[in-house]
Specification:
The protein contains 14 helices and 11 strands. The protein is α/β, with parallel strands linked by helices. It has a 5-stranded parallel sheet with strand order 6-5-7-8-11, sandwiched between helices.
């Protein structure tokens, strides 16, 4: 990329010199040899520029090439990924994810019709920051080949955008006995209201990405690795300029509990005999004295656990398992060698801890 920029700069410097010659001497008085020289100059530097741009794109592809998202008209997820892709991802961690024929990060040969457990979530569940064989769903399938777990995690999904999709998921996975939902960020009261509305009405929205999926130019230009990396940098720059104040308002625990109970009652009716497991990816923090603890919430975690228990759902809070892993192995579940420590996505150890925590639950006779 830097090489391409230097070439562009050199082209403009030489172009300015050529234009000055044309202005002073006049194009009509320019000698034949001079015209040939200028034409050769343009051809030479244009070839060099194209080669540098191609090299920059190859390097960008090897460094940052996440899965390309496309619409999911069956609505069991927000969107899905372009099927059959191989996606290097080294801006956070280092991974080579393999997108299967259905548009999800699975390396097993399990067909959707044969899946017994379906894992639903964000990029944490998708596992785009670790290699496909190292995400927790792949590990669970390795622990027990008959588990038949299928991963439909999709980047940018949330609990609020997935939990009301129980019916479409059951329709797509007719043999599934257990649905496992991720909480990466605790939903707000207003978000839970929308979940309740979708569950009550049966109106399952489809995420509109027609602005990029339906536009020929945008669709194709967004596949260029250099453009994708530049767009990511712009997104980070834009996010850094937006001042985000921490949520300081106290949680109305009574109202939050009531809306959770409404949501889970409706979900229980939708699920019928299908078991529901919800796991919360608690965040860790390094304190000033060097100790590690769980980032405190406003009480949502306890309310989720209570509401799940009241409706026969299984709730798994990963706070204690993450802390235990740190005390025993001195490893944090989040962050990589090329990112701030303890921040961002689950690393290989985080996925391993999650798999080991979920395994006895998913293989128990109750499930």
């Amino acid at each position: 990329m830097c090489l391409a920029c230097l070439l562009v700069r050199k082209i403009f410097i030489n172009l300015r010199a050529v234009l000055s010659v044309i202005h002073l001497g006049g194009a009509h008085r320019m000698s034949f040899s001079k015209r040939i020289h200028i034409r050769g100059f343009f051809v030479k530097y244009m070839i060099a520029f194209l080669c540098a741009t191609a090299l920059a794109n190859v390097l960008c592809y090897m460094y940052y090439s996440p899965a390309i998202q496309i619409p999911n008209h069956e609505k069991y997820t927000d969107v899905k990924n372009l099927p059959g892709n191989h996606n290097p991802f080294y801006v956070e961690g280092g991974s080579n994810t393999i997108i299967d024929k259905n548009g999800f990060n699975n390396i097993s040969n399990i067909e959707m019709d044969d899946a017994k457990i379906v894992f639903v979530g964000s990029s944490q569940t998708e596992g785009q920051n670790v290699s496909s064989e190292d995400n927790f769903v792949s590990l669970l399938n390795n622990y027990s080949p008959g588990l038949n777990g299928y991963n439909i995690g999709v980047s940018a999904s949330t609990f609020s955008s997935t939990f009301f999709r129980i019916q479409p998921i059951k329709k797509k996975f007719p043999q599934a006995k257990t649905l496992v939902f991720e909480i990466n960020i605790m939903p707000s009261y207003s978000e839970l209201e929308k979940v309740r509305e979708h569950l009550a009405t049966g109106n399952i929205p489809e995420k509109d990405i027609s602005w990029k999926a339906g536009n020929f130019f945008v669709t194709n230009i967004s596949k260029v690795p250099l453009v994708r990396l530049l767009w990511r940098q712009y997104d980070h720059y834009r996010a850094a300029r937006i001042k985000q104040s921490p949520q300081k308002d106290e949680l109305d625990t009574v109202a939050y509990h009531e809306i959770l109970m409404d949501v889970f009652r409706l979900a229980k009716h939708e699920a019928k005999d299908t078991r529901i497991v919800v796991f919360n990816l608690s965040k860790t923090e390094i304190r000033g004295d060097g100790t590690v603890d769980i980032v405190p919430d406003r009480g949502e975690n306890a309310l989720f656990a209570e509401a799940c228990a009241a409706n026969g759902f299984i709730y798994v809070d990963m706070g204690e398992p993450f802390l235990q892993m740190y005390h025993e192995e001195k490893v944090l579940p989040y962050g990589f060698l090329n990112t701030p420590i303890g921040k961002g996505h689950l690393n290989e150890k985080g996925h391993e801890c999650l798999a080991k925590t979920l395994f006895p639950i998913l293989t128990s006779e109750e499930i």
